[in-house]
Amino acid sequence: MAASALSNALLSPSSPTPLPSPTSHGPKFSVVRFPNPGSHTAVVAAPLRKTTSTSRFAAFCSSDAANRPEEDKPIELRYPAFPTVLDINQIRDILPHRFPFLLVDRVIEYNPGVSAVAIKNVTINDNFFPGHFPERPIMPGVLMVEAMAQVGGIVMLQPEVGGSRENFFFAGIDKVRFRKPVIAGDTLVMRMTLIKLQKRFGIAKMEGKAYVGGEVVCEGEFLMATGGGGD
């Protein structure tokens, strides 16, 4: 009975009569017309909700991509590569070290006789990881110190400062601290800066810091013997 009453109400002349759905070429509105010409609400229109992808949506994505925040960029495009000031072949021309003890892969900043910044890519294929340690691959601290000393050698073993690769040794290490472990997959960034040079005695004092991801992992003071003893 309730259903019959509702049906009669919908079919009565006083009820609004819905118009046919608009075609694809018609207006994008849902229109309902009332039969009373004196009514102030003769036509009621409401925008239809789009349910399919449109060119407007595609255009929005395209323009938005050009202005997307830095953190929304693909991670492989977010970080630039380190610059190359001296590549591995140029490093080999300066340092006498060879496998497995050449621990500098690239120089990214260089001021002869003053300072240098270089990187060591730490990989699981490094020869020390099978023994240090098999279950937890950590770069030995003494090898971090050795790598930093080699960067110091790049600073000093140059014609500009009267260096000579035939006479370059450790003379002392002071205030060395290891702040965090360095593991396979890390990039060790090492900065060595000359603090004092005694040319008469061939002694150089340097300050060194090594970083991973911007955090200090090792630091200390290095005393080196350098000069032209082999000339």
UniProtKB/TrEMBL annotation:
Subcellular localization, as worded in the UniProt entry: Cytoplasm
Single GO cellular component term: cytoplasm
GO biological process: fatty acid biosynthetic process; lipid A biosynthetic process
One Pfam family from the record: FabA
Membrane as UniProt keyword: no
Leading EC class: lyase
Span list, region Disordered: 1-28
Cited SUPFAM superfamilies: Thioesterase/thiol ester dehydrase-isomerase
Superkingdom field: Eukaryota
UniProt entry keywords in alphabetical sequence: Cytoplasm, Lipid A biosynthesis, Lipid biosynthesis, Lipid metabolism, Lyase
Ranges of compositional bias, category Low complexity: 1-14
Signal peptide limits: none
MF terms (GO), sorted A to Z: (3R)-hydroxyacyl-[acyl-carrier-protein] dehydratase activity
Assigned EC number: 4.2.1.59
Cross-referenced HAMAP family: FabZ
Function of the protein: Involved in unsaturated fatty acids biosynthesis. Catalyzes the dehydration of short chain beta-hydroxyacyl-ACPs and long chain saturated and unsaturated beta-hydroxyacyl-ACPs.
Protein name: 3-hydroxyacyl-[acyl-carrier-protein] dehydratase
Species this chain originates from: Senna tora
